C-alpha cells in the first residue's frame, strides 16, 4: 500500500510541475503578444504623426498646389484611425499603482463604485462635458466605454474589407476611469430643486460578504454627506423558449424518492463515474487494500527466503561464528586475568618513574586532617541542656 501512496504522490508532483510549466509558457506568450500589440500601436501613432507633419508642410509650402490626400487609393480612409491604435495597452504594461490611481475617485479596483448603466460625464477629449451611460467596464485596464461618446472612425484591414462595404467603421473608444465622473440627481435641501450633480468622490460602506456564495455587496456613499447612491437597475434577462425546453411542471415534479432499503444507485455505477484505474486515486476498497498488503507481505517473506538461500560459504562461516559467540555470553574477568592486568600496570608505572628520574613517589594520605569550626550552640539547645542537668541544693551560707 505504501508503494501506491508513493506512486500517487509522484504523479501529483509531476502533474503540478507540468501545470506550472504550461502556466509559465502561457504567461510568456501573453506577455509577448501584449508587447507586440503595444509596439504596433506605437508604430501606428508614429506613422500618423509623420503623415500629419508631411501634410502640414505641404499645405504651408505648396498652398493650392499641395496634393489632395483625401483622394486616390487611400482616400476613403482619410482621417480614420489605424486599427492598431484601437487596441489599447494591455494590463501587463501598467503597474498596480497606475491602475489604482485611475480608480482612486471611485474606490478600489476590486471594489469599484460604478457599474454598467451609470450616467457619467466625460472630463477629457472632444466630448468633454457630455453625459452618457456606461456600456462596458474593463477592470483589467481600468477603462470604461460610454455609450455614444468618444467615437472615432477606424479603418478596416484590407483582408476584412468586403466588396460594397465601407472602408472604415465607427467605434466607441474606451476611456480611463479617471476621465469620467458619476452624475446623479440630488435634491437641494434649501430650494427643494432636484438637478444633476457631478460626484467627485465615492466610498464603499456597509460591506457584506456571503460565505456560502462568495458574493460581495456594499453601499456606495458620498463622503461628507453620508448620502447613499443607489445602484442602477439591471435589465431583466430575456429568456427565449425553444421547442426542446423542459416545462417547469416537469422540472418541479418529484421523480426520485430515496429510501434506506437500497442505495440510490448500483455500486457498479461508481466505477463508471470515476477513474477506476486513475493514478491519482487515493481511496480504494477494503478488498483491494487487503490484497495489496498480502502481496507486500508475500514479497517480503520471499525476499527473506532468497537472502537465506544465496549465502556464500564465507557468510555461512561468519554467521556460525556469531552464533557461537552469542552462546558464550558476555566475557567475565578471572583472578588470573586480574593478576596479569596488575603486573602490566606495575610495569608501566616503573617505566614511567624511570623516565622521570624519580626513585619513588611520596604516598598521599587518603584523608587530610581538617579543622572544622563548630558553630555556637543555639538558645534552644542551651535551654534543653540546662533542663536535663541534675539540680543541686544551694550551698549553706556561713
TrEMBL record:
Pfam families the UniProt entry points to: Ribosomal_uL24m-like
GO molecular-function terms, A-Z: RNA binding; structural constituent of ribosome
Name of protein: KOW domain-containing protein
Region ranges (Disordered): 356-398
UniProt keyword Ribosomal protein, yes or no: yes
Extent of the signal sequence: none
Listed CDD domains: KOW_RPL26 (cd06089)
Family as reported in the entry's similarity comment: Belongs to the universal ribosomal protein uL24 family.
